[in-house]
Give the backbone structure.
Amino acid sequence: MAKYIRINLSTPGAATGSELLINIDQITRIATGSTTTTDIFFDNVQTATKKWRLTHTAPLVANSILDAIQAAMTANPGGVVSTVGSPVSVAQAPLAQSGAQGRIAITTPQRSVVYASAAFTP
């Protein structure tokens, strides 16, 4: 039985819908294309350019999208589908504290990476 990873997309496309499902047995390698793109290459004898290019918001930590995809590939060994997580894009920032500590106000909420779309290159 094939195992898949799922990537939820904020901008559904004709080829993907609102989620991209990829058979992990076909993945050869993953590469960070830029701060907002990640490439998932497939095992293909004819060409080394057969891939899905994910477009996403920039993560706070370099290569965290690559790490999230690899974690999804190795997760849930008895299952069929594992969802790729969303690394942190913007870190939470609390208000500076002085004196007595109590409730801490947050000036900037944490935001996670949003996977916008995926384009296939045959």
Residues 4-121 form one domain.
